[in-house]
Amino acid sequence: MITQNTKEPRITLVGAGPGDTDLITIKGLIALQSADVVLYDALVNDEMLQFAPANAVKVYVGKRNGDHSYSQEAVNKLMVDYALNYGHVVRLKGGDPFVFGRGYEELDHAAAYSIPTQVIPGISSSIGVPGLQGIPVTHRGLAESFWVVTGTTASGMLSNDLYDAARSRATVVVLMGLHKLKEIVKLYQNEGRGKLPVAIVQSGSTADEQIAIGVVDTIVEVVEENKIKAPALIVLGEVVSLHPKFQPIKDFYAIADKE
Ligand code: SAH
């Protein structure tokens, strides 16, 4: 293909944050404003595209409803082709690009073509979404660390890290794990942790935000009652007891304990 492009190719990997358009960084916003092309994922709020120039090419490369029309290889190739032909490609990803975002693979691919790259971090849903609900991932006396674990490994099995996490006192945030909730619950129950507080947050920071709160033993039921859907994350840990909706549950167990 003969191109008319006179712009230098470059790629900026931008974290869009958890959904609310105001939760992108100023640096990410400035990058979007100078984009010639925006490649965006399923978890990126479409409204974010309004920040890009009207004549910028905007390409959706996400996987929705199990539609894997764009493999990672196809995205890598598209990104490089656009950079070489159009100039500045903004690769916009939900949350932070390096938290289960495959961001490094894309940078690696760009490097093979000697295209300059830049990374602009974003607010990861793993910290930001619990935070917006008033659940701190760490809190003195309750949690000295937090783990962010995937519920969906490349092999489709539950991550081995979850077995270790369930034995720790850490706050555990599981991404891509809603469909594995029953397995995760069983794992915690096997460790004798059925009364551990759990929160599930759907579509944090958007109009569809919903929260389900319970303990390990009850959370499956609460999720079904509230019809919680993906994208959602699971927070397991004592810090969840700080959420106002947990108080009645705490009271219930306090009474039950006295019997
Ligand atoms: N890079 C992203 C995570 C990608 S993995 C980040 O840093 O946030 C995708 C998973 O993240 C989803 O399956 C879901 O578990 C979680 N997730 C992303 N955005 C979310 C949101 N707004 N609310 C709840 N969970 C979210």
Automatic annotation (TrEMBL):
Q: Identify which top EC class this enzyme belongs to.
A: transferase
Q: What UniProt keywords are attached to this protein's entry? A: Methyltransferase, Porphyrin biosynthesis, S-adenosyl-L-methionine, Transferase
Q: What is its EC number?
A: 2.1.1.107
Residues annotated as domain Tetrapyrrole methylase = 10-218
Q: Name one GO biological process term.
A: methylation
Q: Name the domain of life.
A: Bacteria
Q: Which GO terms describe its molecular function?
A: uroporphyrin-III C-methyltransferase activity
Pathway in which the depicted protein is active: Porphyrin-containing compound metabolism; siroheme biosynthesis; precorrin-2 from uroporphyrinogen III: step 1/1
SUPFAM superfamilies, alphabetized: Tetrapyrrole methylase (SSF53790)
* PANTHER family according to UniProt: S-ADENOSYL-L-METHIONINE-DEPENDENT UROPORPHYRINOGEN III METHYLTRANSFERASE, CHLOROPLASTIC (PTHR45790:SF3), SIROHEME SYNTHASE-RELATED (PTHR45790)
Family annotation (NCBIfam families) = cobA_cysG_Cterm (TIGR01469), PRK06136.1 (NF004790)
Q: Please report which protein family the annotation says this sequence is part of.
A: Belongs to the precorrin methyltransferase family.
Protein name in UniProt: uroporphyrinogen-III C-methyltransferase
Name the source organism: Mucilaginibacter mali
The encoding gene is cobA
